[in-house]
Design a protein that fits this description.
The complex is a heterodimer of chains A (221) and B (327). Chain A is 44% helix and 16% strand. With 221 residues, chain A is of the alpha+beta class. A four-stranded antiparallel beta sheet of chain A has the order 1-2-3-4. At the A-B interface, β2, β3 and α3 of A face α10 and α11 of B. Bound molecules: zinc ion. The site of zinc ion has 5 residues of chain A, from loops.
Chain lengths: 221, 327
């Protein structure tokens, strides 16, 4: 365990009293186990609580993303609850997690930003039938939805070209006519959009491009 | 609602209605010039036995027997036969002291009647917690209580847990509910200090101390005497406990830190240790309290979750937008 991980785990355990260290190194991760109680913004305590394990990878920490396993089975094992058969919670769209990973996480903050809200949101879904801020569709459709919201467009081919520009598959000079929409100089047209998705990392957006290629091929055939 | 809320509410009303506080920028009139008749009504609003029984039923179930009256002070029911006699009896007991340190600022800000009601509220809330957890209030001294846990029909380990729970709850009430409220009114330095120790059968002598009716059934024990000494070493909102007490528990490392200087020197080479008690961890770990998103502690002993509204989940939940990508 590197010193940063050691420090973060110890600060976490000194703040959240019902979490315990259960394993320092199981398959390369620190395992914490504990209970999450739902307390709303008025300080009311909700009935359900969740027993969870947080698995924090040693490798590259703090540039790492913890995995959360819900072990109390208070979340129905169903796609609609964003949980796998063995309880792994799909906390967020990968892009958001990649951003956290790239900038480096602090365990307490990751818990407050990603883990705790996930369970509060589950409680909200149980009581009202929906997640407060909506949810991403499953699998590839969720990725399409992500770009739809991120780039504010429904155009699949346009999105694909933006991704291609971002990863440099099409070479475009700043002062070239924008080849994506043919309106004005690239630097004043689509460059900002292409640059903005680069923050999710080449590996991720290449995967996304792959998804777009397959889907567009499916539509044109 | 948390079980101390009714006490806090009365204290809040007393503070809000206090005429000296609301006029203090304009006058320094003596208390006599104010109409303080409302205080009597507020005193009657402080919860009594009915609330205690309601909370007990929430915790122990509806079948639990009602308490019809609290035992008189200085007369532990299991040793009351010693009253007005010269007989003595050796029997283990846990002695515990809690004292609420109140800022003298209170006297500058409020009428004496309000300060007295604040004290009464805190003392009553503490008595409530002690009785809820099976303890016995032996004596009330100013802003503090002397309490016994244990007796003839209870195990030492259970009495130990009861004592830790009761004192942790009292500390919680003052450290959180009360302190937050007074700090929002510009008054600092309200806190408790507590000391708890266990004496075994051969270390505790029960006897009647006093003349005729004017006396109490009390204990003579090194460990009854050490508890207030430990209390004196406690930090703000701290609870300090003796070695014999923590010997009753199986899991101790998590909750107790040995103090560097022993509390007692037997003068034969042996020393007696005392420990800081991490009561917040104890409350949460034993499900007497829960923590919110940022780790703040909320008591859930006898808590009833009424009036829950998902709208109050939204500000936290909106940060989460889940996805699913498992095959
Ligand atoms: Zn363009």
């Amino acid at each position: 365990m590197n010193s940063r991980l050691r420090r973060d785990v110890s600060e976490f355990l000194n703040l959240y009293y019902n979490f315990n260290l259960v394993d320092i190194n199981r398959n390369g991760s620190v395992i914490l186990e504990g209970q999450i109680n739902i307390v709303d913004v008025l300080g009311s305590i909700w009935d359900t609580c969740y027993k969870v394990q947080i698995l924090i990878p040693h490798l590259n920490y703090p540039n790492a993303i913890p995995e959360v396993k819900e072990v109390s089975k208070n979340i129905k094992r169903d796609w609609d609850f964003h949980i796998s058969e063995n309880g792994i919670c799909c906390l967020a769209i990968p892009h958001k997690l990649i951003l956290a990973e790239r900038s480096g996480i602090v365990l307490i903050k990751f818990y407050q930003d990603f883990i705790y809200p996930f369970f509060v949101n589950h409680q909200h879904k149980l009581k009202t039938g929906k997640y407060v801020n909506g949810e991403f569709e499953h699998h590839e459709k969720g990725i399409l939805q992500f770009y739809r919201e991120e780039l504010k467009t429904n155009d699949l081919k346009f999105t694909k070209k933006i991704i291609e520009a971002a990863i440099g598959r099409i070479k475009i000079g700043n002062n070239d006519q924008c080849p994506i929409c043919n309106t004005g100089k690239y630097k004043k047209c689509c460059k900002a959009k292409a640059d903005s998705i680069l923050k999710y990392g080449l590996k991720r957006i290449k995967e996304d491009l792959n998804i777009y290629e397959i889907i567009i091929l499916g539509i044109t055939n | 609602m948390d079980i101390f809320r009714p006490y806090l509410n009365v204290i809040k009303k007393a503070v809000n209605q206090d005429p000296k506080n609301s006029n203090r920028l304009f006058s320094n009139a003596p208390d006599e010039s104010y109409d303080l008749s409302y205080i009597q009504g507020l005193r009657n609003e402080l919860p009594g036995l009915e609330t205690l029984n309601e909370s007990r039923q929430l915790i122990k179930g509806l079948g639990s027997p009602l308490i019809t009256s609290l035992p008189r002070l200085g007369n532990h029911p299991d040793f009351s036969h010693l009253r007005s006699t010269t007989a003595t009896e050796k029997h283990w007991i846990i002695s515990a002291f809690v004292d609420v340190q109140k800022s003298t600022q209170l006297h500058n800000r409020f009428t004496l009647a309000t300060v007295a009601l604040i004290t009464e509220g805190i003392v009553k809330a503490s008595i409530f917690a002690v009785n809820l957890c099976g303890g016995y209030v032996h004596r009330i001294q100013g802003d503090g209580l002397m309490v016994y846990f244990g007796g003839k029909n209870i195990e030492k380990s259970q009495a130990t847990k009861d004592a830790l729970k009761a004192f942790a709850m009292i500390s919680f009430f003052v450290k959180n509910d009360l302190k937050d409220y007074f700090e929002s009114n510009g008054i600092k330095d309200i806190y408790t200090r507590s000391g708890i120790d266990l004496g075994h059968d051969n270390q505790v002598l029960w006897m009647y101390s006093g003349i005729g009716e004017s006396g109490e059934v009390t204990t003579c024990s090194l460990h009854t005497s050490l508890a207030p000494k430990m209390q004196a070493t406690a930090s703000s909102n701290g609870i300090v406990v003796g070695q014999y007490l923590i010997n009753q528990l199986t899991s101790v490392d998590k909750y107790f830190n040995r103090k560097s200087k022993p509390i007692w020197d037997y003068e034969d080479g042996r020393f007696y240790d005392h420990y800081d008690f991490n009561w917040e961890r104890y409350l949460v770990d034993n499900n007497f309290a829960v923590q919110n998103q940022t780790g703040d502690i909320l008591l859930n002993v006898g808590y009833n979750s009424k009036h829950l509204n998902p709208v109050n989940l939204s500000p936290i939940a909106k940060n989460s937008k889940p996805y699913f990508d498992f095959k």
